[in-house]
Design brief:
The structure is a single chain. By secondary structure, the chain is α/β, with parallel strands linked by helices. It is built from 18 helices and 20 strands. It has two domains: about 270 residues, Glycogen Phosphorylase B (Rossmann fold), CATH 3.40.50; about 190 residues, Glycogen Phosphorylase B (Rossmann fold, 3-Layer(aba) Sandwich). The radius of gyration is 23 Å and the shape is globular. It binds alpha-D-glucopyranose. The site of alpha-D-glucopyranose has 14 residues, from helix 1.
């Protein structure tokens, strides 16, 4: 049991999304899967996220109303409802306000700064009420990405100065992707973020308000989602301008690799795939079914290369755009799922219509379809320019789709080159951000697939068995929490 002064350690995860309730990417996977593992380690881990309209999906745990109160944000006086649900043994809280969170999409509104400032204040304001209602008051608040950065800033700069109950709380902030920093014009410091001018220096960076910078300054520990990325964000090439700050606070920064939920991503009992399987030989039926569903030629011997990704340049989509037509001269199928930059979306739609026998591009976010693709694909392409951790390469691995990745961030920490001599390694990798280096590596992989199918299958089986669980990372978080709990 995780205990502090013979009490159970209480950790509140604050995030803008969490599976199974609301998800646009890897952050939701992490927030949905790490707390249950910590719970098993004896931590009282709970989660709080906004109550978005996208919750109206089927098959969610029952959500019930707890209470409501008002939140003051500068001159605003806003309703705040608190709802709750249990999932995988973890208590979730939801911050409800129709005006802020009943929108068509999670992010991208003109007033995202105000929406997440409201959420951050609501999180701090609800704590004494949760203590009264449920006996839960966190020792640690674990915030994630810029949307929750203000929690740590308000806590350390404002709340703990006016209310002694907030004083012992420690803050861990995790950067899941440093490219999204929460940058705003100075004029909203007081009017929206409700911070006096005296706090400007905390959030000021490069002539604007930068909430990630504020979170880095105010947190007790800064984490990011892989050891390699933790080093990379000290450099200008990876930090999107924030390397000065990351270097200044390197003493409190640590990289902890993400795990995946190996129960949810389990081809031996996944209800979303056509045929469950335990070894790579079981993939054939899933491949044939997907080829049929997508109206591609049903051929077990044609290698299926897949990508499931946000269509943005940091995911390495430029490299694919540069050489895909060369690759399509060979006998391959290319299946892509994802949304993102309109230019890339248009490119892949056009590609699919130009190569109807070889290419399918599904421009959407679809969890169930993604699992069918992992189960069907032979090779999974992830040539990211930068990758804080990356979950898709681990999920693909679990489904026996051999990952082919660029050696960066968490991809470097999770996938090692397959060495034909020794049989070691668990995928294919290339180092330089260069389209022909990638193409060369894809061709090497395809040669193995065509010429040495037994070796290919052995490698796929190695991938399927590789342990990408949360067991070790969860222990690292636990050690980190315990280390800071007694800080003065
Ligand atoms: C972000 C990152 C991704 C990481 C995920 C979860 O989506 O881009 O690399 O795996 O967050 O931490």
């Amino acid at each position: 049991m995780a205990e502090t002064n013979s009490k159970t350690l209480k950790v509140l995860f604050v995030a803008s999304e969490a599976l199974p309730f609301a998800s646009t990417g890897g952050l939701a996977d992490v927030i949905g899967s790490l707390p249950p593992i910590l719970k098993r380690e004896g931590v009282d881990a709970r989660v709080i996220i906004p109550y978005y309209s996208m919750f109206k999906q089927k098959n969610l745990p029952e959500i019930s109303f707890m209470f409501d109160f008002r939140v003051q944000l500068a001159w605003r006086d806003q309703y705040c409802g608190i709802f709750t649900a249990e999932h995988n043994g973890v208590t979730f809280y939801f911050v409800d306000n129709d005006y802020y969170f009943k929108r068509m999409s999670l992010y991208g509104s003109y007033d995202d700064g105000e929406r997440y400032a409201f959420f951050s204040k609501a999180v701090l304001d609800v704590l004494p009420k949760l203590e009264n209602n449920e006996g839960f008051f966190p020792d640690i608040i674990h915030t994630n990405d810029w949307q929750t950065a203000l929690v740590g800033i308000y806590l350390k700069q404002v709340y703990r100065k006016v209310d002694f109950r907030y004083r012992p709380i420690r803050v861990v902030h995790s950067i899941h992707n440093i490219e999204y920093q929460g940058v705003f014009d100075h004029c909203i410091l007081g009017d929206v973020f409700d911070l006096d001018q005296e706090y400007a220096s905390i959030v000021d960076y490069n002539g604007a308000i930068n909430l990630t910078k504020g979170a880095v300054v105010c947190c007790d520990r800064l984490t990011t989602v892989s050891p390699t990325y933790a080093n990379q964000i000290k450099t200008p090439a990876y930090a999107s301008g924030l390397h000065y700050i990351i270097n200044q606070y390197a003493f409190k920064t640590v990289g902890i690799i993400n795990g995946i939920d190996q129960d949810y991503y389990d081809p031996s009992r996944d209800p979303d795939i056509v045929k469950t399987y335990k070894t790579v030989s079981g993939k054939a039926k899933n491949k044939a079914a997907l080829q049929e569903e997508l109206h591609l030629p049903v051929n077990p011997n044609t290698p299926m290369i897949s990508m499931i990704t946000r269509l943005t340049s940091h995911k390495g989509v430029d490299l694919v755009v540069a050489v895909i037509e060369e690759l399509l001269q060979e006998d391959v199928q290319f299946v892509l799922l994802g949304t993102g930059d309109v230019g890339f979306e248009a490119f892949f739609k056009r590609l699919a219509s130009n190569y109807p026998e070889k290419v399918r591009a599904m421009i959407k976010y679809d969890k169930a379809l993604s699992k069918k693709i992992y189960a069907a694909a032979d090779l999974f392409l992830m040539p990211s320019k930068s990758e804080p951790c990356g979950l898709a390469q681990m999920i693909a691995s679990r489904y026996g789709a051999i990952p082919l990745v660029r050696e960066t961030g968490g991809l470097y920490d999770t996938i090692r080159y397959y060495d034909e001599e020794t049989g070691e390694g668990n995928g294919f990798t290339f180092a330089n951000y260069n389209a022909h280096d990638m193409l060369f590596t894809v061709r090497k992989a395809l040669t193995l697939y065509r010429e040495q199918p037994e070796r290919w299958n052995a490698l796929a089986d190695v991938c399927m068995k590789k342990n990408f669980s949360w067991d070790i990372p969860a222990k690292e978080y636990l050690a980190l929490y315990e280390e800071i709990i007694n800080l003065d």
